[in-house]
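PROTOCOL LOG
Step 1. Enter all chains and additional molecules of the complex.
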Amino acid sequence: MFIAGAVASLLLYKFQKAASYIGFGIPAAASLYGIWYFFMNLTGTEELIVQFPVMAAKFTLDPLGAFFSFVICLVGFAASLYGIHYAEEYRESARIGAMGFFFNLFMVFMLMVVSASHVFWFMVFWELMTLVSFFLIHFNDSEKTAKATILYMVIAHVGGAAILAGMLIMSSAAGSLYFQDFQGTAVSPVVATVLFLLFFFGFGSKAGVFPIHVWLPEAHPAAPSHVSALMSAVMIKTAIYGIIRTCMWLPLNEWWGIMIIVFGALSALLGVLYALTQHDTKALLAYHSVENIGIILLGCGVGFYGMATGNAILAAAGFIGGLYHVINHATFKGLLFLGAGSVIFRTHQQDMEVLGGLGKKMPYTAFAFLIGAMAISALPPLNGFVSEWFTYQSLIQAAIGAGFSGTLIFTMAIVALALTGVLAVMCFVKVYSVIFTGTPRDENIWDKAKESPVLMVAGMFVLVTACIALGLGAPYAASKIVGVITYITGSGLDVAAGITVKSGTGSIVSPFLISVIFVSMLFVPVIFTMIFKDSTSTTRMTKPWACGAKYTSRMQITASPFTGFLRQTMNWLYRSDVHFKETNGYFGKIEYSSHARDIWWDIIYTPIIKGFSGLARMLNVIQNGRMQIYASYVLIMLALFIILAIFG
Amino acid sequence: MELGLIVGLSFFLAVMSFAVIEVRNLNRATHIYTLQTLTLVLIFLAIAWEHSIGTLYIWAGTAFLTKVLLVPFLILMIIKKTGIKHEEAPFGGLFHPFISLGVSIAVAIMLEPIFIRFSLLKLQIPILVSIFVFMMGILGLVFRKSAVKQILAYCLFENGAHLTLALTAYNAPETVEMGILTDAIFSVIIMGALAMRFFHHFGSLDTSQANELKG
Amino acid sequence: MYGNINSAINLLLLIPLAASIAIWAGARWNNRALLFAMHLVAAVATSLAGLNCVASVLHGEKYMILNDFLLFDSISGIFVLVISVVGLLINLYSVKYISWGLENGEIGFNDARLFFSLSHVFIFTMILSVVSNNMILMWVAVEATTLSSVFLVSLYRNRRAIEGGWKYVIICSIGLAFALYGSVLMYSSAYHVIGDAHSAMLWTSLMDNAANFDPELMKVIFIFIIIGFGTKAGLAPMHTWLPDAHAEGPAPASAFLSAVLLKCAMAAILRYYTVMNRIPDMGAFLHQVMIIVGLASVVIAALFIIRQNDIKRMFAYSSTENIGIIASALAFGGKAGIFAVFFHVINHSLTKALAFCTSGNLQEIYGTRDAGKMGGLVRIAPVTALLLGVSIFSLSGMPPFAIFTSEFYTITAGIQSHQYIAIAIFLLGLAVVFYGLVSKFIQVTFGKPAGEVRHASEVSAIANLPLVVLAVIVCVIGIMPPEGLLSLINSAVAIVLNQ
Amino acid sequence: MKSLDILYLIIQVVAIILVSPLLDGIKRIMIAKFQSRRGPVDIFQTYRDIIKLFKRSETLPECGTWVFRTAPYLMFAVMATVIAVLPIMHSGSALSAASDLFLIVYLFALMRFIFGVASVDSGNPFAGIAGSREQMIALFVEPTIVLSAVVVVFLAGGVTNLVEIKNFIGSPEILKVLPVFIFSGVAFLFATYVETGKKPFDMAEAEQEVQEGLLAEYAGKRLALAHGSLILKQIAIVGLFITIYLPWPVVGNPFVSLLLFLIKLVVFYYFASFVEGVSTRLRIGDTRLAASGAFALAFISLILFIIGRVG
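Step 2. Run joint prediction.
Step 3. Record the structure below.
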């Protein structure tokens, strides 16, 4: 049984705090085994009963669980390979040992969460996953991480409490604590809606859905890169797994699907809009996780809508879009984080404004980052395009079937998805080109930079091949996912025909054919150059042309002006606080910096915090030190209870 | 009304307890307290004689030994050691006595029917007075600032409780009664020791000065 | 079997009493080794006796001794188990703590002697209060615990300690006065029904013919009991003395107070609850009262925790909060609810003892209790940081640790009894507590030390040994509680619910 | 049948690539006439420029990575793919798997991606600004294109494959939903005009401000290819418009349909140059107003579609 295998190998590591090689070697091997194992039995269901006196823990591995474990192992393998070298950044061996220890625990707990099928143990591993990631984040220990982690822990804990409450209500209705008994419980619609809201917002808080996404851009940049890669690529997916798992129990109704879609669209749009204004690479990538979670939710929303309206094909189409994007997002987001990590590993600099021209010095990282950037902006030959294409198809198919408001919302979702695509392209053009291309902006970074160690690059290239394979091999991958979907919705959809991929409405696209045409078309310009090639073409290297003035690297466009224009037009959303200081005299140095604030922080969170601390201040009065007043509390309480007894 | 003697003694007891709380001079307050416990013992004897209950004689004896002799001696020793004769103004200021009087009488009237229903000796006035004394003790603790006065208040409500116990359930096993008395004595000793240390550190016995622990 | 149980229980009571007198008398001449040796011997002896008694009562047996004045059933078994296990570990730790106190000159040799002898009297009174079958004897024992622990609290000779001690005595005695009234009323009404003076006092007889007590009177009695023992247990509106008393005393003393003493007061309330629960239409009223008090303590304590800057006051407030949890679990009732009550009693006493002793370590390392001046504990004393981490995450209800399991049961009980609003408030309170505790944890362990560090070295291994044992138990009990413990708790639940 | 299609595909691509400089020549002559200046000698002037450029030697900024050097080839190839995919000559059969609406939209996105990265890679300040403007235009135009195209997809019963769409629009039922079709057609036309980067909206390659953006850094054969790819882009977007919205004289023979396509292309260019000659360049902020107008049109068509279908 895989779980026992994985647990044994990882736990073996847990007790012996060795240096980084062992620290990340074993999880790499374990996840390799995991990938092979999960890929094999995406459809079988096994069970593992672990006898604990308090509650018999039961772990069943059904296709849904297997799919998510496959995703975890895939990214886990790459991240642990990458981690072997990356851990050097944390010099003292105790720290690396501790990091390895927590890293393994993190992997084990995620696997357990995905396969737990008992309310108590699911909650135990769910909270443990948060606890371990809390420690991992604290490895680069700075003032900012303290604020980030407390925010992260509190939101995760409140989400956990909501999930626990929901599951317990469910279990009291179903009469037992095991998940499979929840399947057919008759729950009144009102309670079902309450449960759905509890689950959606409980898991949503972990996934970073729009209103509760605030912790994500704080926590991920603070963590070491391969940890934040694992967190954003995979941990968020466990929340999606949670939403799907819980909604399979409840008797669905249409409005839930539409609600998920609305939230998905909002998260997508706002995620990418905020990503554009970030200077810190990892914060930018974190906001992109919010955006991609939005896209996944769009797909799943259509899936749930289909299940609610009983239209199985629509449900299957929706889920394919959603689940396919889950695996795609895991691969290219992991890749991007690892890429950013290797940049930081070499330059110790997260702020994009200072980096530049690293493409020359770090060619492999540059190439890997480029593939990741193209995949995330869903450019055709790669996997991002295929999953967004599925989502488009499912939205169209849903729009045709729906009533007046339904079509309107679905079409608006399509437009939002398209807009997100454009903004994503803009954002990743900015990120890639500012870091890796152009002239270097900071001399000492430039000479220090060199290609990151072999294993880190190997880790990245595992994910690069995964991206390309998922892109070109779309028909094969999609048919595999259909197996999982038949488990969820009870009916599949013939998706793949040869090299093309079919959607519910019959429209087909074949990424393979496209790349063939693209490559053939590449020869055309080459032929043209052949024909006219009779000139003495000596290519001279010159400085870029700056209308005559001496070219300096400062003249080059940097990250913020690239999107500066967008910030002006969208200032109603960003309300960035512009800091403009005019120093002395006419030719004085002008200092200008504007930082976009996440306005949701003021709208939702500050009032809550103010409310609680205000309440606490009010209550503080009762503990004022004077004994007489304390004594009188006892008497007042006595009087109160007597009144209660008489009238109660 | 039943026999005049018990009723008279109980009224006398009530007046004495009011005086104990109100008198500012600590020495005189302790003397009044000793007088009060004496009347309590007399009540016990009167009831025992009246209703010919054997156990009450033992109760009266032990009460006399501990409460009339030992407790006042301890309190006087504390006053001698700290040398503080006079007590500060109480918490409620001028109208404090009226509040405590009013509240205690009200509570007494309210609780009395409940106690009377199951008590063995259906003597209405003494139960009323015992609850009154109990409440006077509690309110004394709440309103009074001086440590010694608080110890006196503690002994007061101890007497009240003792009288109630005697009236409602005199046939309780002896060990119980002994337990309560030893508790009373020990708490007076401990409070006294603490008061000495309080005086040593705060320079006076005014407990309202001690309000550093806030929030 | 009957014979040696009788002697075992007598032994259990006699050892601490004898020990305290011995220590007071024996350790006259100013040498520490003898003092510590006697203390350790006494502590180990008491806990062994305790465990021996508990072992005999694992499956719901019941023993009555001293012409039925003492009762040893599984309910008292649980509390004696707590006293012996937690008591032993705290005593081990207190030896080290007091030696630090002596070295730093905070306390003199006589104070140390007083501390040790009083702590044994304290253990004696607590065992008596839990074991006694007679209502008023129990009241006397609880009153005695207050008196014996006053000087434990005000050990340090400074103004704050005296103030804490004085408030503790005054407020508790006011509370207990009402409790006395309650028990007197209970006795008189029981006597009226049972008719025999002797047995009217005993819990066992009360439980048997509880059905024909008159509910009106019982309501008034229950109010007096809740007010009386509630003050002693630190339930919300009457908890004002708790932070002052627990924060000012030495760490082992406050560990004793909050880990064990509050539970014994809760034991008294539980006894009355078992009797009252059997009266036909009292359930609703009981539930109403307990819910108000339970939720009030959780919410008020939660709101105070986020404002605290002093580590020990924070843990004191978290004791009030956990007592509130126990009260709400009692209010939810049902099999899961009562199981949660007993399970939480054990979990909380273990975790709280660990928490207070770790704060003792922190005080030793940083020389102050103010969290603002602490920081970077991970680098200075990693083991203490780990212990602090275990205690804080367990208190805030993180899964691997014990308290999460008992909270899990409490919420299941709440949902089974359809108290959705109460559960919502309950979870909200827990979330606020979580924020308060974890933010303090981050402030202390990570970052750079703000204030000056007294001696920046790991606390000596001997001091940490009992704490590590405590930490391990807390982790293990959460997930894999031992078989014996479960049967003990289930039999106690059977008694309460009168199955 | 498959090999025939490939043959058609190659013919189609080669023909359009050869014709494209011709169209550019027409445009330059038209504009010159409007501004009453002599303009180039004849419509073949662009051919001569490109051939000349191929012969010239090159200068490259030394900081450019391989992305900058290969960008012209990539851009040219992408545009060629789009043209190849348009179902002008070959309709139906295996190749139709590649001609999908969203695919083409995202191929344009790929083009923008390469254009953006190359422009920043060159290190040239003006090219950088050009790259960012290119993205901005797309931001305004994309929703309109997608919305109007999606409405057409709804009309054609949810299938996004261009071949089916073409057959549907060619067939008589289009008459029933004509108003919806016209509105979305107008919106799409406007969006294509903006996308082509002609006069009022050619911020990315504006000569005066940004020295033709990306082209500034290229020289020799790369400049030729870059210039060629920009022209091809204009033809591709217009081609997309024509295949969806003006397929009318549906004719069986592929060659004739290719000819018809070229003729429509020339007519479109004729009108486009007319508009270009007259208007002046807008600030990028103002395009927002224009774009939202187009988006409103597309939205009306959506509402009409919904009412039409429900009613």
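Step 4. Note key features.
Chain B touches chain A at residues 91, 138, 141-143, 145, 207-208, 210-215 (CB under 8 Å).
The CA atoms of residues 22 and 94 of chain B lie 11 Å apart.
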